[in-house]
Amino acid sequence: MQVYNVLIFSLFDMLMLVIISRFLLQNQVSNFKRDLKFIITGSILIAVNDYFITSEILSHILIFPIDILLLKRYVSRFKIDIYKTLLLYSIIFEVMFIAQTVCVIGLSLLYTDFAVGLQFGFVSQILSLILVIAFCKKVDLSVFYNYVERENTIMKFVILSVYVLYYTLTVLWYLSLENMMDYVIAILVILAITLLTNTIVLANSKIHKEIKRKLELYEVYFPIIDDIVDEIKARQHDYHNHIQAISGIKNKLACEVTTEVEEYANQLIERDVWATLVKMDNKILMAFLYSKYKHAEDIGIDMKIVVDSFFTQSRYKNYELVEIYGILIDNAIEAALETKERRVVIITGSENNRNTLEVINSANNIQTHHLQRIFDFAYSSKSGEGRGIGLFKLKKLIDREKGTIMVDYDAQISKMSIKLLFS
Description:
Oligomer: single chain
Strand content: 5-15%
Number of helices: 14
Largest sheet: 5 strands, mixed
Helix content: 55-70%
Number of strands: 5
Shape: elongated
Radius of gyration: 30 Å
């Protein structure tokens, strides 16, 4: 292929790379000069590589590090490491490859005289560009990328392995069929080593991620436990004041004493959320629930916490329990903030040797079709980016251990309830 053909096709490839990367990284505000510089520089480098490297296979192999270095430079302001750059590049390439393949197949079916060259190649690239833009506008790629990059180790492995497989097959394709067997063993060995390395890297990444989550959990909630201990000490100091208040009531008539003491005691009980929480065996959950109670108090939410069982034996790790509780409670608080009652009730307990968590909140009118889809990926009745992930993730966590989710909405009293049963 002549060098100007390569330059023209590369311009389209670089443009598609810019468009897809911007949508993946939620960077939809374009910097025209910067993007143009990147597209032209990348296209020229690829054309120069094709012109000076006479070996097709070597030229093809060199395109990969050129693309990676260019992409790493382009996304440098996002502070993405090389491993995340590889993941980003693999996703971008696979989207481009699918679009270009669809267009080439479509043109080959429409035109019997279809051949690889400047004319059909130019048309194919224009159609591919249109298809990529339409796809990026229709699909929220940033949600997918964030989900894969942060949560889904298996999907990372699949995406990277698909690219490695494609790259290996293209190298084989560039080799002549006569010498194929001379290279196939070496290529398979390289493929096996790459897949093994990929697996080890992903496994280590998962281990480090779990350790990091545990450390973050302890850093956040251990100080809260200290705060609870300090509050208990302060309440002990207030105890004498309460005794004096009750003693002051005793001089009244008996019926008045009974009523006032009962009301006074009820007020104390309602305020003593810590007295219930402190009995929980899982101190991380205790601290977490206390932090949510204080947060609700600060923003004007009337929150009540009922602990029917103080023992939480679970297959989930502590950071996973915090995620499960947190997603449900945060959603309830967000919904309650939009209501007049602004009320949330949290009930933890056990049924048939399984843990239960029920969160009830005041809620505005909820349509049936919204209730049916609240656990769908990226679905939310509210506008805004990054929504609809929490409840989807919650369902995945509960389904993993074959738990149960029950949803109830009572329109007459404007109450929403989600109850979990999990091991």
